[in-house]
Amino acid sequence: MKNTSAGYSRKIQIWPYLFALPFVLSYLAFQLYPVIYSFFLSLYDWNGVSDKEFIGFGNYSDLLLRDPLFWKSLWNTIIIMLLAIPLTIGIGLLLANLTFQLVKGKRFFQTAIFTPYITTPVAIGFIFSYMFDWQSGILNQILLKLGLLGEPYYWLQTPFTAQCIIALMFIWKNFGYFMTIYLAGMTAIPQDVYEAAKMDGSSSRNTFFKITLPLLKNISIFLIVTTIITGFQLFDEPKLLYGGWSANSVGGPDNAALTVIWKFVDNTFISDSRLGYGSAIAYSLFVFIVLFSLISYRVTAGKADKK
Questions:
Q1: pTM value?
Q2: pLDDT at 247 over 50
């Protein structure tokens, strides 16, 4: 009887591993292996067709020491994030607070605000390119009719305004997601806290800044760190905004719209077909993402702890 029960228990212990095996195999084949092979490629000079030539860390030295366009693309990405992330968080938090206080129409308001987040990037690129076009754009037409402009302004062909438009695209697409996450956090706060504050005579403004905001600390840290990770991978917005101008249009005016991922795609698959160099860009970007994520976490978590 003991041998039978022991064999039965061993069979039961095998089943969890068998059920997990398909996921583990697919993860190893389609995620872990490409990551490892990408680092392997970054040590070679290879265009995908000819024989690989081992050059060690030559791709990394070329990228970091002899490619000013990489640093420009990194700086462009940081500027766009600095323009977009604080406003996205602020707007999302404000809308979450307003929605949380609504009695009627809350679901309709949530759905309307969240809709841009599920809009396809192609549609977003078309909408903003049409809005800011210098000749037929809606914005120029309104400003001309109001007398605020004497002639159409080249919004998409000026470096700084190009970065502002990309940041605006990011804000418009993501503030609904931020609102949803903050709204979920506000819903989880016990109502007893608000009732106690109301009995103590706390105003709505004081309750928001002294109670709601501190209790949303962990959500804010999560959103900041994950948004920085997403921001460094910015590609759809600038590419769709400027990719249609011409077949060889890369980076927008004075390369002000060139992001790290756009440079990675261009060097790897379009202009150069340098797979090893593209892998070096990807791994360098990974290091920068980890670095900035750690810094942002330390800063935001440290400020929250002091409060």
A1: 0.86
A2: no
